[in-house]
């Protein structure tokens, strides 16, 4: 083993340790690897940054935009509502339709995004059926991962494997090449989950919240907000005029938390977000949460030159197109646990206001701004719908648990839903022709979504999950570094010594097992980047077609069922499902073996050696 190869393997080991411990963000680790490769002379600058120009990386970014268009037009949430209507009160029907719906929708948009959309649906249905969310949350996660086996563009590992084939001068896969495997795995998953859900008894925790189609009024009641809000008009000459909310510090001085601002625009009042940098104007109407305040309201109004106004019971519902509410929970691995809202500067950071906290099923009272957040707390947020939706992609710290029924009227481009479906269908049709590159087809669909106002530029850029993009870009040089230093040849020789004389099917088993083991420690995307060139090299060494070897890597990378850190999908369902690490092992290991058996049996039939 040369010193150069030892250096590359050492870097790989360090990266795996950092990914596993999660002490440093994965995208930061990826960027540090690029820097290290260049400075050490292992790779040239052009070699280390090859991922930034890879068309499949650009395709992944474009697909994030397509998915956001489906969310903004309400298509994704309408599927959740349809699911509730079809399943009724039957848990079995819900499980089957849930897995089919998630696998179908995830075939064309990010599986992580699909699962995030359906988590509130599962919580709502579980509450209505008076059953544990854990009995449905694991099927949701499994279906999200299986959706990656439905189409070529369903998940980054598929596109990475296809890109490696093209880079080697070989013909890549078609759009639906992987679909027969995905359908078989989905059918097996349905049967498996109908039986295995009984093993989820350890995650059984009833929820007292009636989340099914909850309204603003329900949330106000559950968080005991009635009587806490006030409306004030800012008179001309008020000392508040011309200052931002952060400058005024009304919450710190008076316990007055401004959660909304009505402002005259085009001869009518509209609600605008109460962000920290919002500068107040004369005649603005402030919606203020006074629950933390012990000041005399008359004195407060006199000092700040405010005029009290009537606040009717239907106020929030009347403004639901502009003001949103959402229940969120802090993820278990978040660094925000233990911090108070004041410590984390919540409104300044996210542009939203926390108006309620529930702990152990009970609403907390008193001053919430200094209350440290604990694992299991649910927070009620209020603010702009766009910022609420952005919270799902802007931070890895929170998951949106529940959106009230008013969200249906708040989809910013709901009227453009038919156009969004047309753009999606057109993209798939162009990809099926094999005459137009996949990235160009996705880019055309993105531009058409912009033309039809399904999405705007701001939300398009915000929808791209940049940490995932940077992770892929940073891991791509590893494959090239292993190839240059002889690492791939060394791994292939090891595989040949183990299974070279036993036939290509045994080699498929070895590749699947190796991919699954690596996937225990790093993401499935990074696993595919490392394993794709190894699989193709093994096929060349055995003088057989590389297509079945490449396909087994794509399937194995998506089969990240065994641990909660193998995929973002698993991490998302960990908290809401009430799962432990052992629950993923208990259900994931047997099903991974089932997927391996299906893959090894069917792939050589679809792609002969």
Automatic annotation (TrEMBL):
Q: Which residues form the RCK C-terminal domain?
A: 217-306, 313-397
**Gene Ontology biological-process entries:** potassium ion transport
Transmembrane helix listed as a keyword: yes
**In terms of one coarse class, where is the protein primarily found?**
membrane
Naming one, the record's GO cellular component terms include: plasma membrane
> Coiled-coil annotation: which residues?
none
InterPro entries, sorted: Cit_transptr-like_dom, DASS-Related_Transporters, RCK_C, RCK_C_sf
The domain of life is: Bacteria
Where it sits in the cell: the answer is:
Membrane
Q: Annotated Gene Ontology MF terms?
A: monoatomic cation transmembrane transporter activity
- List keywords of the entry alphabetically: Membrane, Repeat, Transmembrane, Transmembrane helix, Transport
**Entry-linked SUPFAM superfamilies:** TrkA C-terminal domain-like
Q: Which residues cross the membrane?
A: 29-45, 57-75, 95-124, 136-155, 175-195, 436-452, 464-485, 506-537, 549-575, 587-607
Q: How the protein sits in the membrane?
A: Multi-pass membrane protein
Protein name from the UniProt record: Putative divalent ion symporter
């Amino acid at each position: 083993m040369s010193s150069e190869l030892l250096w590359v393997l050492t870097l790989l080991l360090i990266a795996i340790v950092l990914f596993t411990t999660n002490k440093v963000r994965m995208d930061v680790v990826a960027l540090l690897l690029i820097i290290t490769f260049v400075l050490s002379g292992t790779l040239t600058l052009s070699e280390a940054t090859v991922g930034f120009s890879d068309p499949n990386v650009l395709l992944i970014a474009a697909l994030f935009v397509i998915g956001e268009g489906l969310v903004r037009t309400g298509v994704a949430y309408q599927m959740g509502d349809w699911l509730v209507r079809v399943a009724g009160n039957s848990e079995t029907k819900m499980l089957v339709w849930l897995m089919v719906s998630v696998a179908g929708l995830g075939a064309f948009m990010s599986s992580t995004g699909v699962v995030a959309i359906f988590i509130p649906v599962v919580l709502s249905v579980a509450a209505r059926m008076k059953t544990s969310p854990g009995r449905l949350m694991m099927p949701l996660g499994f279906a999200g991962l299986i959706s990656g086996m439905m189409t070529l563009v369903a998940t980054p590992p598929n596109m990475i494997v296809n890109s490696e084939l093209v880079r080697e001068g070989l013909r890549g896969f078609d759009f639906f090449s992987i679909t027969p495997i995905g359908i078989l795995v989905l059918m097996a998953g349905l049967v498996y989950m109908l039986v295995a859900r009984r093993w989820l008894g350890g995650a059984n925790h009833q929820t007292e919240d009636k989340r099914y189609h909850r309204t603003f009024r329900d949330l106000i009641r559950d968080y005991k907000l009635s009587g806490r809000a006030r409306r004030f008009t800012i008179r001309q000459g008020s000392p508040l005029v011309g200052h931002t909310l952060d400058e005024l510090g009304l919450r710190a001085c008076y316990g007055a938390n401004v959660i909304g601002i009505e402002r005259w625009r085009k001869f009518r009042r509209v609600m605008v977000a109460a962000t920290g940098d919002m500068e107040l104007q004369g005649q603005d109407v402030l919606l203020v949460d006074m629950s933390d305040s012990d000041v005399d309201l008359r004195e407060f109004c006199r000092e700040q030159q405010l005029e009290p106004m009537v606040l009717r019971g239907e106020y929030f519902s009347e403004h639901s197109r502009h003001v949103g509410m959402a229940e969120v929970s802090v993820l278990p691995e978040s660094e925000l646990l233990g911090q108070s809202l004041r410590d984390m500067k919540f409104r300044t950071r996210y542009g939203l206001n926390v108006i309620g906290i529930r702990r152990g099923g009970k609403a907390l009272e008193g001053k919430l701004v200094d209350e440290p957040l604990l694992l299991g707390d649910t927070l009620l947020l209020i603010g702009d719908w766009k910022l609420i939706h952005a919270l799902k992609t802007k931070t890895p710290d929170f998951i949106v648990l529940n959106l009230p029924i008013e969200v249906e009227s708040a989809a910013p481009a709901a009227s453009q839903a038919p156009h969004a479906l047309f753009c999606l269908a057109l993209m798939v049709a162009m990809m099926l022709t094999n005459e137009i590159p996949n990235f160009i087809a996705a880019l055309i669909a993105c531009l058409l979504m912009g033309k039809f106002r399904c999405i705007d530029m701001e939300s398009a850029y915000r929808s791209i999950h940049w940490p995932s993009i940077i992770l892929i870009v940073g891991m791509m040089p590893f494959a090239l570094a292993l190839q240059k230093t002889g690492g791939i040849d060394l791994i292939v020789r090891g595989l040949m010594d183990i299974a070279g004389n036993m036939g290509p099917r045994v080699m498929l088993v070895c590749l699947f097992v190796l991919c699954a083991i690596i996937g225990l420690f790093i993401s499935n995307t990074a696993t595919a980047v490392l394993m794709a060139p190894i699989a193709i090299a093994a096929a060349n060494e055995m003088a057989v077609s590389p297509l079945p070897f490449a396909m087994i890597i794509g399937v194995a990378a998506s089969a990240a069922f065994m641990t909660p850190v193998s995929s973002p999908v698993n991490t998302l369902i960990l908290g809401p499902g009430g799962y432990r690490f052992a629950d993923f092992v208990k259900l994931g290991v047997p099903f991974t073996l089932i997927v391996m058996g299906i893959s090894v049996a069917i792939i050589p039939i679809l792609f002969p050696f």
